[in-house]
Amino acid sequence: MPVGENKIIRIIKRRRPRVVVIGGGTGLPVILNALKKQNAEITAIVTVSDDGGSSGVIRNYINVVPPGDMRNVLVSLSDLSEEEKAIFQYRFESNDAFFSGHSIGNLIIAALSEMRGNIFDAIQSLSGMMKVDGHVYPASNEPLTLNAEFMDATTQAGETEITGMHKQIKRVWVTNTNSSDEPSAMQPVIDAVMGADAIVLGPGSLFTSILPNLMIPNLGEAVRKTRAQVIYICNIMTQAGETVGFSDADHVRVINQHLGGDYIDTALVNGAPIDMTKFHPEDYDEYLLPVKNDFEGLRAQHCRVIMDDFTDQRNGLVFHDGDKVAGEIINIALQEMFKRK
């Protein structure tokens, strides 16, 4: 066995690779579940500016951080039985004006937030109850409001309202929903970023799931200062209201512009063709198209490119292949561990 491989094996025995995943939305649990199978030490930092669906209703009723994304992340890292996780995810079908459409997990998170006095401590308590393998941290301990400026210089507040404008977004920022205080992340969030081997951004909506976290001043500063490799999982498809016409280089450019420099070290981009004939006509959006590759644009931003068939195409939808993506992330994290040794 080569000498280098012996060293890596000794490092693996000493500790697991530390991977911090920052984002929100439906793509995040796919990657977290796959990383869990790779035996990584995982920290998920989850967006708290969602104002749609059940999360938005609960946020408006009892003024807590929206729980939906955190609920899904907790389940993805939980060692509970499938039956127990299904109960937590169950969504009411009642005609009751309040319970209809709400999941049990969202209500539990809201209740624990009131009992513990804040969302951060609530999620830590629930992580223990759900036997979570890793750490789940809200990006902020307070509800945040997403704000956007469009290319026509108009502005809009609120995630749902922003995407509903269907305008090209120039920049986004976050404000505290309930006060004029500057948004901030809790210290364990910052410590996780600074101690990581790899920081993963995405997959998820660029302007509404990824950037809101990076716009929290002390969290964005930690991503800029960390020694970890910063990895961006590029979306496979463009998204109406956010990234119409974007290439993979455009996605990276927007993140770098918001961070104020070339901070994305590696981009995982899909190189496989997408069979658009499999999309259901009733679900098809004319703006939903494969993200184009722009390798020169990525290299101009000093970004390493890893291209593969990262797709899981089934049921008329396109997902990321979690196992393939997680494998690349672990390889990068191990390389970073080896460099430090």
UniProtKB/TrEMBL annotation:
**What is a GO molecular function of this protein?**
LPPG:FO 2-phospho-L-lactate transferase activity
Question: Which Gene Ontology BP terms does the record give?
Answer: regulation of cell shape
Q: Which domain of life is it from?
A: Bacteria
Keyword Signal assigned to the entry: answer is: no
Instruction: Return the CDD domains for the record.
Output: YvcK_like
Q: Which SUPFAM superfamilies does its entry note?
A: CofD-like
What Gene3D superfamilies does the annotation carry?
CofD-like domains (3.40.50.10680)
Under the cellular component aspect of Gene Ontology, which terms does the record hold?
Answer: cytoplasm
The UniProt keyword set, sorted, is: Cytoplasm
Q: Name one Pfam family in it.
A: CofD
- Localisation per UniProt entry: Cytoplasm
- Main subcellular location: cytoplasm
PANTHER family with a match to the protein in the record: GLUCONEOGENESIS FACTOR-RELATED, UNCHARACTERIZED PROTEIN YVCK-RELATED
Function statement: Required for morphogenesis under gluconeogenic growth conditions.
Q: What is this protein called?
A: Putative gluconeogenesis factor
* Source species: Lactobacillus porci
